[in-house]
């Protein structure tokens, strides 16, 4: 049997760091949501007890370093599954972009193999398994919109943000999440984003208020290290996006846009100097 799963990209509408923890992770407070840009994952049963990964993308690992491989191995080990699986990743989310592409592939693999092998694992259990693979994986298991705390694995689902367009642009650099967290001075954060403001704007479906409250404490670190990200952010603002923010540890910058008429102008303006630009809808 063969099954398919979609693995959408996430953006962080708010990303605050409360403190650095003794285990090296940072205690965060984030509002995360999904956008309509997704990898497609095909999973096919194999009688032979092995995991094989393939992808058209030449720039991701296809061995045990791949997060989908790790998800398949984890579920096989925990549930003592003796069958194998062939997993093909049709990558559309840019890699190491702050969009959780790898985490979403891992989460989609957990969901898919749960179906393929009739394991009847609850979403809560899949999220617990996912946390072993990465901090963003539990959110990607269920998607939607959520307030994430802890190191990102404690989730409280909330209502969807007001519907809008999301323009995403990724400059041609790779950013390491651990390097960006490592360079953040958690004690010296001068201005924390208003997660409460983002939550109330979403609750009241107030698009303008949502745009005014977007904030990410990792943005300053990445913008200082990579001036091209700052340039991209300024361009998106100049082109008229209603709210602009870097997602996660970057380097992707997203712009929220309420009027469809503006989207083409912003998209074309960015495409003039940046290859990786996408105009998508917020997933609601
Ligand atoms: C910054 C965020 C925001 O959503 O996303 P990305 O930029 O990766 O998309 C996440 O917190 C990233 O989550 P994820 O990419 O799953 O991180 P992990 O694999 O768990 O951790 C990678 C490294 O990031 C650091 N890390 C991660 C999460 C956290 N709360 N505190 C940390 O300090 C640690 O150094 C860790 O070794
Ligand atoms: N299935 C996968 N898709 C993308 N990247 C993967 C995958 N498996 C492992 N990786 C590795 O994970 C790292 C982070 O990738 P990704 O999840 O796209 O970034 P981010 O967490 O910034 O959104 C990259 O260095 C990449 O090589």
TrEMBL record:
Keywords: ATP-binding, Isoprene biosynthesis, Kinase, Nucleotide-binding, Transferase. One of its GO terms (biological process) is terpenoid biosynthetic process. Residues 199-275 form the GHMP kinase C-terminal domain. Pfam families: GHMP_kinases_C (PF08544), GHMP_kinases_N (PF00288). It comes from the Bacteria. The active site is at 10, 136. InterPro entries: GHMP_kinase_C_dom (IPR013750), GHMP_kinase_C_sf (IPR036554), GHMP_kinase_N_dom (IPR006204), IspE (IPR004424), Ribosomal_Su5_D2-typ_SF (IPR020568), Ribsml_uS5_D2-typ_fold_subgr (IPR014721). It catalyses: 4-CDP-2-C-methyl-D-erythritol + ATP = 4-CDP-2-C-methyl-D-erythritol 2-phosphate + ADP + H(+). Its EC number is 2.7.1.148. Pathway: Isoprenoid biosynthesis; isopentenyl diphosphate biosynthesis via DXP pathway; isopentenyl diphosphate from 1-deoxy-D-xylulose 5-phosphate: step 3/6. ATP binds at residues 94-104. The keyword Hydrolase does not apply. Belongs to the GHMP kinase family. IspE subfamily. NCBIfam families: ispE, PRK14608.1. This is 4-diphosphocytidyl-2-C-methyl-D-erythritol kinase.
């Amino acid at each position: 049997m063969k099954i398919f799963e979609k693995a959408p990209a996430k953006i962080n509408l708010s990303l605050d760091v409360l403190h650095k923890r003794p285990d090296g992770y940072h205690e965060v407070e984030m509002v995360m949501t999904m956008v309509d840009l997704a990898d497609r994952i095909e999973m096919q049963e194999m009688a032979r007890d092995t995991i094989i990964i393939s992808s058209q993308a030449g720039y991701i690992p296809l061995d045990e370093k791949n997060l989908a491989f790790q998800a398949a191995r984890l579920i096989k080990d925990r549930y003592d599954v003796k069958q194998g699986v062939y997993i093909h990743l049709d990558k559309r989310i840019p890699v190491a972009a702050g969009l959780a592409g790898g985490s979403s592939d891992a989460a989609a693999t957990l969901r898919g193999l749960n179906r393929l092998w009739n394991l009847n694992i609850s979403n809560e259990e899949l999220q617990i398994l996912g946390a072993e693979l990465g901090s963003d994986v539990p959110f990607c298991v269920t998607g939607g919109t959520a307030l994430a705390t802890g190191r990102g694995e404690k989730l409280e689902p909330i209502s969807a943000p007001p519907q809008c367009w999301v323009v995403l642009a990724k400059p041609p650099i790779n950013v390491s999440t651990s390097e960006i967290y490592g360079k953040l001075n958690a004690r010296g954060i001068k201005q924390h984003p208003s997660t409460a403001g983002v939550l109330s704007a979403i609750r009241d479906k107030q698009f303008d208020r949502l745009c005014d409250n977007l904030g990410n404490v990792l943005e300053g670190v990445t913008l200082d290290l990579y001036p091209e990200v700052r340039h991209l952010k300024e361009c998106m603002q100049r082109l008229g996006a209603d709210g602009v923010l870097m997602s996660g540890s970057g380097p992707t910058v997203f712009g929220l846009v309420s009027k469809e008429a503006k989207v083409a102008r912003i998209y074309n303006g960015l495409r003039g100097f940046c290859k990786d630009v996408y105009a998508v809808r917020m997933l609601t």
